Every structure is written in C-alpha cells, then in structure tokens.
Amino acid sequence: MNKSPNILIGSAHPRHKKRERADTRFRWYGLTALGMALAFLVFFFVDIIGQALPAFHQTEVRVDVHYSEAVKSNYNAGIDHKLRRIVSRAWLRTLPALLEKQPELIGQTRTEWVPADSRVDQYIKQHEGHGLKEKYQKTVDAMAAQGNIRQVFNAAFFSSGDSKLPENAGILAAAVGSVFTLLLTMLVAVPIGIMTAIYLEEFAPDNHFTRMIEVNINNLAAIPSILYGLLGLAIFINFMGVPRSSALAGGLTLALMTLPIIIIATRAALRAVPESIREAAYGLGASSLQTVWHHVLPLAMPGILTGSIIGLAQAMGETAPLIIVGMMAYIPEPSSSILDATTVLPAQVYTWSTESLRGYAERTAAGILVLLTVLLSLNALAVALRNRSQQNW
Amino acid sequence: MKKILLATTAALLVAAGTAQARDQIKIVGSSTVYPFSSYVAEALGSTTKFKTPVVESTGSGGGMKLFCAGNGMDTPDITNASRRMKAKEFKTCQENGVKYITELVVGYDGIAIAQSKSAAPINLTRKELLLAVAAKVPNKNETGLIDNPYHYWDEINPKLPHRKITIYGPPTSSGTRDAFEDMILKHNTKHWKVYNDAGYKKFHEIRQDGVYVPSGENDNLIVQKLTKDTAALGIFGYSYLAENTDKIAAATIEGIAPAPETVQDGSYKLSRSLYFYIKQSHIGKVPGMLEYANLFMSEQMIGDDGECADIGLIPLPKSLRDHYRADLKALKRLKASDLKKKK
C-alpha cells in the first residue's frame, strides 16, 4: 500500500501533452480528408447541375407555317426559305405526316410556336461555340426583339428517343431499354444468386471443392466488367443466338456480372442469422428446408434485398459490357419487346458525350443527372429497407 | 413464383434463338460515317413508315467482320467504312456466301491536324509529320533506320519553330487512325529507299515513347487537351474542327488549310472517301433497305447544300454523285478486281 510519490498521473505526466497533440492532429487529418471528399462531391454536383439545367429549357420561335400541297412531298416548303435553318428540322419532318392526318389544314398559313434549331437554342442561351452563322444571328436577334422567341420546358427530352438533331434528342428510348434490361437482370440474377448462396451457406459440406467455389465467386465480383461483355457475346449471342443489341442480351450479360455481388451479400446476410434460430427450429423437428424457408431466409431478407438492390444499381450504371453486346448504338425508338434492339441510359450519355454539336453537351449532363437521381433513389431504398427491418440479436 | 420466372426466362431464351425475321435495318461500321448514317436513319424513320434503322458504331474493320459473317438475318444489312473494303475482306465475304455487294461513296472526310487557337500558326508537310510520329526514322545519311530521336520540331526541319512535339491522336481501333497511317506513314514510306531497303514496304508503326499520345475514340477529349496544352497538335476528323473553330485552328499541310473546296479538288492531302456497302441478299427481306440507300445518296442529304454537309460531310463533286447513284440504281456488284485498281 505504499504508492510511490514520484509517479505522475493524468495531465501532470510530461508525455501527456504530446499524446494529446497527436490526438488533435489525427482528428484534423480525418476532418481534412472528409472535407476534401465533400469538396469533390460538391464541385461535381454543382458542375453537373449547372451544365444540365439549360437542357430542361428549349427555345421556341413564332413563325408562319404554310400548310400546302407541296409540303406533302417537300417539308421544307412549309416555312419561308430564310427561316429554314432557324426552326428545328425534326419538327419540319413531321409536317407531311400531320397533313396526312389533318388534310383540312391544307391551304392555310398559321402563326405558330415551333421548336428552334439547336444552334439557335444555344445562341439564345449564350453558350460559347453555338455554331450559328452570323447571317442567322441577325435574323434571330430581330425575332427576339419582336418577342417571337421564348423558352419553354423541354418536354421532348423525356418524350423522345435519341436524335441526330440535338433539339429533338431525349432519353425515352434509353430509359425504356434500361428498365427492360434491368428487369431481366433482376429476374435472372436474384433467384439464382439467392439459391446459390443458400446452398453454399446452409447445405454445402465444407471441403476443398466448395472452398474453391467460394474463392472463385469472390474473385468474380472483382474482375473488370468488360470481361462479362466478352462472355455474354460468346455465350448468349454467338452460341445461343440471342439477337445482338437486344435487352435480352444485355440483361443476361449484366446478370452474370451481378450474380457474384448478390451471392456474397446473401451469404453475409445468412451468416448474420444466429445459429440459435436454426438449432431451435431443428430442435422442434423442422426439416432443413423448413428451417431455411420459414426461419432463416425471412430473417436474412433485409440484408439480401439491400445487397440485391446495390448490385442492380451497379448493373444499371454499367456500360462497358454492353458495348461488347452491341447496345452502344443509334437506337431512337423505344423497344417494345426484349428482343428488339435497344440502348440504355449510361450508353446514351456516352453516345451524346462523343457528339461534336454543342447542344449535346448539356444533354449529356442532363442524362447524368437523371441517371444519378435514379441511382440515388435505388440506394436510398436499400438504406430504408435496412433500417426498417434491422434486427438486433 | 421464382420457378415460373425462371421457366419464362428459359422459354424466352429458346424463343430468341428462333426469332429470325426482322423489320428493322441493321447498320454497323465506321465511327466516322456513323453521324451521317444515323442522321439518314433518323430521317428515314421520321418521314416514312419504315422503322428507324439501328446504327452501331463498330469501327470499319469490326463492321466488315460482322457484315461478312454470312447471309443470316442476324448479320447486318449495311456496313459503313471510312476506307475501301480490303481485298482480304471481300474474300472472307465471298467464302461466307455474301456474294453480291454494292459499294457506294457518300462523300469525303478530311483529317485535320489542329492546335489551340492561341498557338502560332504552323505549316507542315506530310514528310515532317511522318518524321514526328514514326517509330523508326532514317538516320542522317539515310543509310539505315534508327529509333525516332526527335523531340522538337526544329530538329526535323530547322525552319520549324523550337516547339516540343506532342501529338494527340486516335488509338489503333479507330478509323481515323487507319486513315492517318495510310496517308502519312504508308504513303510516304512506300517509295522511300531507306525504308524499302530495311524491308518495310508499308511501314505504319507509330512511336510509343510518349510523344504520340493515343487519346481514345472521344474526339471532344482531344479538343479539350489542345486548349490546355498549346504546344500540342491533335489529329481528328474535319467535322470536329468545323464544330470547334472557337477553340482550335488547323495547321496547314503543304501550305493548304483543310476546307470543303481543298478536299474536293484534292489539294488538301489528308482526306479520304467514306463508303457504305449493301448486302444484296437482304434486299426485299428487310424492308426499307433501298429506300435508306436512296435517301442517303439523295441531293437532299449528300448534295452541296445537303443536310449531311451541315453536320460535317464534305460532298462529292456532282459528277461522282451521279456516278454512284447510277451504281445504286443498277445495284452494281462489287468485284474482286475493283478493289485492286486505284480509284
């Protein structure tokens, strides 16, 4: 009971200050790292949103449209010669079909608001490199002074597919393609992935063979996604004869890619279910099937769903394997079946980013914004599912 | 429930294998022709009752491979190319039963050597370009080949500025790279004694010591890099130059700047023809093929004031346009002998 009087404790110790300082420094390193990550994120969002917002407005011009017999064979006749480069050619092209439907229009000249050409649109939005020739700039300036130019919500962005005329380019076809592809991926990858995981976790004997499978699955989750594209091309398109560029080919390829992720997530969720639950079920005389189906699986469900959703979200943002199976193409019409050629959102974004016309730049950003929104909602759903049904053992 | 889903998927797989008939044209091929081809595809889809053709950008070589794979309905109907079909590819086509092919030229594409607008103007010859990018160059006395030692333009020709050589260009997969190799490397070395002596008849190796930077298929990226690195030059398609005149300017090649007129009259040397090939066995089986080809070849599209010219195509002279229209009308068959002679 004889405490030595020269042992210093607490803040009195000479090394205490040093340790405290190191502590503070460490905290600051962490904060700086977090701050940088946040700064990158904010910069990214501000940049993308800033570029994307103009895409949601489309310039319209008020012009005289001449509905005449001549328009049926030459749509350019519908508009004064000097205005032909001002209005959208995509709109001009629809005139003959309109006259087929409404022949009573023939012979009339109407003053209408019609979509402007993308170059005019970019000029009005004062974007550098709008590409509008000077003689047209004067025409447009004059029209603006007379109040014949306005900006409206760009509904075409959501209601039309890809187009070579930026003012008419939208995400509909790609969105439909993404939905088809993702549904297929889900239908294939989720059941197969869950069943594999259940077998490996609940039934498989622990031997070299199953351990080898385990290692391989973990490896598969990490290999570059483009390899799955090559696999998909070899198996589904060349061997099974699935049509190139179709949602079926893309969906199956992405399913291959998502499988390991789902298997790993499911196994982790199954492993988190306490052994006592299984033992209790067996103790009451339940069979293996009953134990898994009635007790283990329902308890592991939130974890499985979270893993699956995150796997599917990743599949949704994937482009590389889809290039190989031919989904990076000009496909403007929304597909009506899973065998039709189709494209997906990230592929659409990439296609636009390679276009030389300036009007595509803002559409690229807008496409990214739409994709991000969908992905964030999917991830939010995963988090919500996890929080809602979290179990504490 | 899950079993039903699995069964449905399996059934779909089987169904996919048998689904052969097609009501939509499939087009593959060159990324250079792609913008024009898809533009015409869209026009066909929106002005006629035919479905909009699917246009996939696979590169000229990739397109030929798919096109020549056979006559089945799962093969493409049309392939675009930024160069002529090679005799070897024609042979593959013949061996796989793709007997009758019609060849059409839609216009020209120029390759532009460009730099940042703020850089001092530069004039280069094709030979100087070769010496800047080739992996092997002749030594001083032209007695043998050495690894490319040049890092500044004035080392190649004292009259050129003392400027670091950096060239951003397309990677090997690209059609623009093909054309660049043809027009700069093969063209110059074919009749250059020192290369022939070394056994290189058609030398096309590009240096890999970081002076030539392959920059992906994305030409926008090259434009961005040029605005940052004002000493560098970039190689890309003429349409990108035309769209980005606010940021980049063309270098003159042998005193000539790229422009529609200089390409047409042949005085600008870095230009090439753009082709597409029609699989005749699919005409009649896939609706709209001839309508598509006719629309593509029409004055409205590829004429002097045509819609494709608006998006960067350099039109053919009138006489050639008429010539190819006649070929299309007659569905002229491509022969192996056509591919040998120079056009």
Folded structure, characterized:
Chain A has 393 residues and is mainly α. Chain A folds into two domains: 63-152, no CATH class; 172-388, MetI-like (MetI-like fold). Chain A has 15 helices and four strands. Chain A has a three-stranded antiparallel β-sheet with strand order 2-1-3. Chain B is of the alpha/beta class and 343 residues long. Helices cover 38% and strands 17% of the residues of chain B. Chain B has helices at residues 2-18, 34-47, 60-67, 87-95, 126-133, 153-156, 175-189, 193-197, 219-228, 238-243, 260-264, 289-297, 299-302, 307-310, 318-330, and strands spanning 26-29, 54-56, 78-81, 101-116, 123-124, 136-138, 145-147, 167-169, 212-214, 233-237, 248-250, 252-253, 271-279. In chain B, strand 6 (136-138) and strand 7 form a beta hairpin. The longest helix of chain B has 17 residues, at 2-18. Chain B is globular, with a radius of gyration of 22 Å. Strand 4 of chain A pairs antiparallel with strand 2 of chain B, so a sheet runs across the interface.
Features:
heterodimer; A: 393 residues; mainly alpha; MetI-like fold; 2 domains; three-stranded antiparallel beta sheet; 15 helices; 61% helix; B: 343 residues; alpha/beta; D-Maltodextrin-Binding Protein, domain 2; nine-stranded mixed beta sheet; 38% helix
Blueprint of the fold:
The complex is a heterodimer of chains A (393) and B (343).
Chain A: H1 14-52, E1 57-66, H2 89-93, H3 95-101, E2 109-115, H4 118-124, H5 134-145, E3 149-153, H6 156-159, H7 172-203, H8 208-220, H9 225-239, H10 247-271, H11 275-283, H12 288-316, H13 320-324, E4 329-330, H14 345-353, H15 359-388
Antiparallel strand pairs in A: 1-2, 1-3
Helix pairs in contact in A: 1-15, 7-10, 7-12, 7-14, 9-10, 10-12, 11-12, 12-15, 14-15
Chain B: H1 2-18, E1 26-29, H2 34-47, E2 54-56, H3 60-67, E3 78-81, H4 87-95, E4 101-116, E5 123-124, H5 126-133, E6 136-138, E7 145-147, H6 153-156, E8 167-169, H7 175-189, H8 193-197, E9 212-214, H9 219-228, E10 233-237, H10 238-243, E11 248-250, E12 252-253, H11 260-264, E13 271-279, H12 289-297, H13 299-302, H14 307-310, H15 318-330
Parallel strand pairs in B: 1-2, 1-3, 5-12, 8-9, 8-10
Antiparallel strand pairs in B: 3-13, 4-10, 4-11, 4-13, 6-7
